Amino acid sequence: MYENLITRRWDCSMKNIKHYTLTIIVITMCILCSCSGGSDLDEQAKKPPPSAEMIVQADRLFSQRKDLSKLREAIGILQRARLENLRTYEVEWKFARYNYFLARHTDDENERESSLETGKAAGRIAMQMEPSRPEGHFWYGTNLGEQANRASIFVGLKSVDEIRNAMNRVIELQPDFELASSYDVLGRIELQTRLMGGKTEKALEYLEKALALEKKNGDIRIHLAEAYLAQKNKAEAKKQLESVLLMSPHPEYLPEYDQWVSKAKLLLSTKFQ
Question: Smallest Cα–Cα separation from 70: which of 41, 113, 101?
Fold first, then answer.
């Protein structure tokens, strides 16, 4: 009986030792992981911010985005800035913007998908860095929206609420941001989801608010025309399309103006015969 007691005490002591050893190992691993994470943050903090010249060069190339090679070069400059320099809000939102435009115009499906995913991630980072500024919310939402447009209808619908939230946040912060395009996005969502509950009347409400804020956004007028056509109001639709052809282009959106004119001419030739 006494021997059994000694044996039990021995077994209990060994269990305590094993438990203590395991606890020490876990604590040590946590400390090492913490130190490693801190080291990464320290290394990031030591990096210099991107130079003003780098940002200016990227912006200059982006202004020539009609040539996609220039746009890709601009993206490459900002990618280097993200890897080699301190991450900044300006670089993140511009990187999201540039990738969105590349995705909209490239013919390479793999490049398109990669650009949208990259742009969405950069937009999310920008949102987290400066939640009270509109750029991150907007470019996150537009990259996500373009992904949704190219996905199956059921996959795309899963993103609708998230896109709406991003655009409504932009409207709270700056209603006329990016030529009042947040209202335009909300209007397009209503038009594109009519079979799933979207309403043409709601689309018109959003698009008319957008037009009241910005007269030189051809997308707004084209989508207004599509909404009027859905209501069988061909007179108002034609008026909006003809306005695209007559308006003077916004100096910062010359590449987009050419696309707006092409879309307006196509609708006029196909819907008003």
Answer: 101
Residue 238, C-beta contacts closer than 8 angstroms, at least 6 positions apart: 225, 268, 272
Length of the chain: 273
pTM of this structure:
0.81
Residue corresponding to tokens 């993206």: 75
Q: Which residues touch 234 (CB under 8 Å, ≥6 apart)?
A: 228, 271, 272
Contact call for residues 159 and 199 (beta carbons, < 8 A)? no
Nearest alpha-carbon partner for 238 in 253, 228, 251, 249: 228
Residue 154 has pLDDT above 80, yes or no: no
Tens-digit pLDDT profile for residues 233-253: 999 999 999 999 999 988 899
Which DSSP letter does residue 215 get?
S
Rounded CA-CA distance 164/253 in Å is 24
Residue whose C-alpha is closest to residue 103's, from 61, 71, 64: 71
Q: Which of 143, 194, 189, 198 is CA-nearest to residue 164?
A: 189
Backbone angles phi, psi at 85, to 5 degrees: -120, 175
Burial of residue 100 (CB within 10 Å: 0-12, 13-18, 19+) is buried
**CA pair distance 203, 92, nearest whole angstrom:** 31
